[in-house]
Amino acid sequence: MIRQTFPLGRISRIRIGAHWSALVTVGLFTWILGSYLTGTAATAAVWATAVIGAIMLCAALLAHELAHSIVARRNGVRVERVVLWLLGGVSELTEEPRDARTDLRIAVAGPLTSLAIAVVAFLAAAASAAVDPDGPITAVLVWLAAMNAVLGLFNLLPGAPLDGGRVLRAAIWWRTGDRLRAATWAARSGQFLGTLLLMIGLAELILFGHLGGLWLMLLGWFLQSAAFAELTVAGLRHRLGDSKVSDVMTARPMAIPAAWSITELLHSDAVASGHRVFPVVDGAGHPIAVVAWSDLAAVAESARATTPVGRAARSLPAGAIAREDEPLGDVASRAVLRPNLDAVAVVDAAGTLMGLITSTDLVLACDRSALGLPLRISGRQRLPSVIDERSTP
């Protein structure tokens, strides 16, 4: 996931955010478009139009990602948010499609949206050309049509994590029935495509001195890195097989009320538990955050008596909340768990905390799976919740 984002609101009940690097993208688009529009109008009008055009292209990128997310939600796939960043946008899905047909629908939604926007922009450019053929508005509309067409077609290249890689994965999955094989082929195709873009960008930079080669090199590096990550995730899913969250979670974990002060926590039974990470719950028992000893140590000793645990804790992202019957591979692929810092909260249908998974649990699950051992350890100790202990007379 892309961290350190700022919220932009919601569209169709989907959270929208932006990484700071998105500002670099807007600036780059403005500079490119401003250079393209030079001579079509006065300098002030050219750059004002360039800024508007750059924002419109970012809106088109957002529409591309929203199409993925909306189709995903309509097909029962949970969506955490859509984030704009340096290389465009990303839809953060908290689970994988359950079948090849759903995978295909989600994959093609983005490119089709971009191509549709290209057609609309082209028609608008044709109408504008009838009134002012050499004006900046006509030029911007032509540029938007071309950029969206390139965006849609480029994303259809057959390599993960591009949309074309998802289409390739869905096709192989549908044909063979083997999801691992499909994901592996799509990821390896993405690695090849990334290497190819790196080589083309380097050649453009050396032979022609075009700075655009740097952009291709950056894009190639990103594709290589993302494809390698997808290959790793595919192997992880294979190792975990059909195991469920319930196979590795610690049931009824020690939970800390968010309203407690840090001093109350330090004088509770949590100190003697030996645990390093705790889920933080609200008054209804819903997990809202996670807290580690290092989070508490960061609060000055003089302020611990008046600082609620909820303020010192770190919010749980949607990807770190799972259901008991959810495939463990889905959770492992979306949640980045740092040792002694993060955890996945397992909830029931009402959203009440019922289990916890730490990075140690996932590592142990992978190791036992590799050895052919069952993931569930018989007789696994169930730890009482701090809430339960404090409420016992």
Order of strands across the main sheet: 1-2-3-4
Distance between the ends = 44 Å
Strand content: 5-15%
One letter per element, helices H and strands E, the order comes to: EEHHEEHHHHHEEHEEHHEEHEEHH
Mind explaining what this structure looks like?
Helices cover 54% and strands 15% of the residues. It is an alpha/beta fold and 393 residues long. It has two domains: 5-240, no CATH class; 245-391, CBS-domain, CATH 3.10.580. Strand 10 (321-323), helix 11 (328-334) and strand 11 (343-347) form a beta-alpha-beta unit. The longest helix has 32 residues, at 43-74. It is globular. The two termini are 44 Å apart.
Question: How are the SSEs ordered, and which strands pair?
Answer:
Blueprint: E1 5-11, E2 14-19, H1 21-37, H2 43-74, E3 79-85, E4 88-93, H3 100-131, H4 136-154, H5 163-176, H6 179-208, H7 212-240, E5 250-251, E6 256-257, H8 262-266, E7 277-281, E8 287-292, H9 293-297, H10 309-312, E9 314-315, E10 321-323, H11 328-334, E11 343-347, E12 353-358, H12 359-370, H13 386-391
Helix pairs in contact: 1-2, 2-3, 2-4, 3-4, 3-5, 5-6, 6-7, 7-11
Question: Could you write a compact summary of the structure shown?
Answer:
This protein has helices at about 20-35, 45-75, 100-130, 135-155, 165-175, 180-210, 210-240, 260-265, 295, 310, 330-335, 360-370, 385-390, and strands at about 5-10, 15-20, 80-85, 90-95, 250, 255, 275-280, 285-290, 315, 320-325, 345, 355-360. It is an alpha/beta fold. α2 packs antiparallel against α3, α5 (about 165-175) runs antiparallel to α6 and α6 packs antiparallel against α7 (about 210-240).
